[in-house]
Amino acid sequence: MKNLTYLALTFLVCNNFNSAFCQSAISDHHQIKLIDSLYEIANQDLIGNGDMLKKLIKQSKEANYPKGEVKGLVNLGIYYTHNSMIDSAHIAYERGERIIRQHPELEFVLSYIYNNKGTILSNQEFHYQAIKYFHKAHKVNLKKGDKKMAMITKMNILNCHLELGEPDKVLAYSNELLQDSTVTAQEDLKYYLYSNLAKAYFDKKKYRKAINWWNANLESIANTEQTGEISYNLTSIADAYRNLGDYDIALEKAMEAREILANKPEFSGYIAVNELVLGKIYNSLDNPDMAIVHFENAILKNPDDPLDIAFSYKNLGAIYKRIESWDKSAKNYEKYGALIDSLYQKRNEDISKISEGKIQLIEEEYKNELLTKDNDILSYKNEKQELYIISLAVGLFSLLFILLSIFLYKKYHKSERQVELLKENEKKILENHLQSKEEEFLATMLSVNERLSKLSYIKKNLSSAIKYNNREELKETEKRLENFISSTSDLSILKDRIESQYPGITAQINTSYPELSTNDVRHCLLMKLNLSIKESAQMLSVSTHAVKMARKRLKKKMNVPEDISLKDHLQNKIM
Predict the structure, then answer these.
(1) Consecutive sets of 10 residues in the chain, 575 residues long: mean pLDDT of each?
(2) How far is residue 264's CA from residue 259's CA, in Å, rounded to a whole number?
(3) 370 close to 423: Cβ distance less than 8 angstroms
(4) Cβ atoms < 10 Å from Cβ of 562
(5) What pTM was computed for the model?
(6) Are 184 and 178 spatial neighbours (Cβ–Cβ below 8 Å)?
């Protein structure tokens, strides 16, 4: 449900943004008044008025109306985002930032640009990068005295920390916000704060406290028409009771949520979450038939988070295996493996796009630097030419001035050669950097192809086993499939990436700490990549508790002092 929360916050940001523009002073010029009127019409349908926004941006530029141009670019970014044109959205926001840098009076708009950029990165699972933009937005909000927008940005930061598996940070920030009258006086902000508190306590396995905060939210919206959120809170409470082992109460709450959503297809996302939790409950009650029904319903309803679909396939595979329905078990495990593999592939593509964007930025900066140097050289050359002419004129009357002019001329040519050498060296550095990035990307693609080949081989064996009803071969294929699923956490792709950036790092770890196991080295590499506990758990297909315990044992093996974190130790010890 994180996407629904982000969506709600994003629309709140957009509405505040448009209100801020409306409250700004508008020029009396007829064309500018006409542009503002048309913007009001376009704002009624930001998802579908892309062409109209482009025309208004062009008209604003022709009318020398930067406020209108920035307004159009921000709304165009929202349009691109809702139509899944993320690269175009980034370009629109970058254009808006460039205009704002030329017009400091529009600085307040940066808050909305940073918030929207952060939301896009959050939805792409790049939460650390998103937090940076949310902090920038928060700084602008405080500078402009917009307390409510500052609190909205804080809520976005809390969501990112939750997704990164950092509930302690969420609880620490939330305790401060609970004392803030700006939050407690606003029902919408208080609702999001309570939701974050509940999720944080749930992640820390303090289910009773999580239930208390979800119940508090239920009381605040009980008499409203927020059907989806009411059902979501009930479903979340049911999941908490399931983890406590109170299966009867869990089933009662989940069924209550299900009744609220009955015959309401517009709430398919909430229905999918409810079906997923019902599947977990019936699985805990050892009722495989009902668990299968609800896990399959969760897949059909297509929840926003593809990890929920993968979770359903994995559970279906385990249930069918338990009841010895080998064909269905193998098919669901195969779907689970294919989905997880596609998610890793998509993540690699997103990382590649970000890397390409950084390379383009480096190229642009390099070109700008060369232009600046060329201008400096021309200015320098002109100055030297003037000095040479003066020296030559004076040299007609004095040999001393002639010698001086020759000396300056030779010095000029020497400095010009030095500048050319500097340009050639910088060009070689950039070419080497680009070549290393290309080699790194090629290595990643080769590793992905190798995984696809393995999956094809498993599929071929599975088809043969099913065709000839060979039980032994079917079991062997299942074992290979499980090994393949486990291999998605063997970090071969990530190992290649980190080896390309830190050559010989694995050998360095093994040399410095020969007593470490393969699993210990794997955890070291994950921390070197700055992956959180939650991300590491997903990569290794284990619980967050297992990752925490592994890191604790690793710290003990490496004799790291208590007052130094394992991550800092690795950053300082392993270069």
Answers:
(1) 44 46 49 75 66 84 86 86 85 90 88 89 85 90 85 86 87 84 83 90 93 92 88 93 94 93 86 90 92 87 72 86 88 83 67 49 49 56 62 67 70 68 69 55 53 70 77 77 60 56 73 84 81 81 87 87 84 73
(2) 10
(3) yes
(4) 6
(5) 0.53
(6) yes
